[in-house]
Description:
- Strands 1-2 form a two-stranded antiparallel sheet.
- A hairpin with a 2-residue loop joins β1 and β2 (84-92).
- 67% of the residues lie in helices and 11% in strands.
- It is mainly alpha-helical.
- The longest helix is centred in the first third of the chain and has 25 residues, at 5-29.
- It has six helices and two strands; from the N terminus they run ααααββαα.
- α1 packs across α5 (94-115), α2 (34-42) packs across α4 (60-72) and α3 (49-56) packs across α4 (60-72).
- The chain is globular and about 55 Å long.
- The two termini are 28 Å apart.
- It has helices spanning 5-29, 34-42, 49-56, 60-72, 94-115, 120-134, and strands at residues 76-81, 84-92.
Amino acid sequence: MMVDGAQLWTLNQRLLSVVMDACSGELAELGLETKEFFVLAEVAASPYPAEIAAALMLPKASVTVYVRNLVAKGFIRRQIDDKDLRRHRLILTAEGKEARERALSALAAEYDRRLARVTPRDRTELQRILQEMLKSPE
């Protein structure tokens, strides 16, 4: 039986949405909206707003709004980049690191609850498959 790629993508997206919805209460307690969380989680890997927009496939204008909100909440701060004084680098504050870690823990716990339904062997295979799918095409 052939499995349709679009159906798999839809199932994966639905799973991610269900997990995020289940964690929305914890995110709200931290003062985070869902997309703000994604931006907050990306700051360490992509410290410039344009990089965050590209990594998360969000419009730059939206990222600007989320960054402003996160700065106002004290989760991140802007710092002029020493290498290019025209750019602002984003840095997680201590509060931002704590909020990110608590949110990631909530997401991991919810995902683990769902993953518990899958055998250890299938988990290993799922990890292998996802890693293979993430490889750059040659």
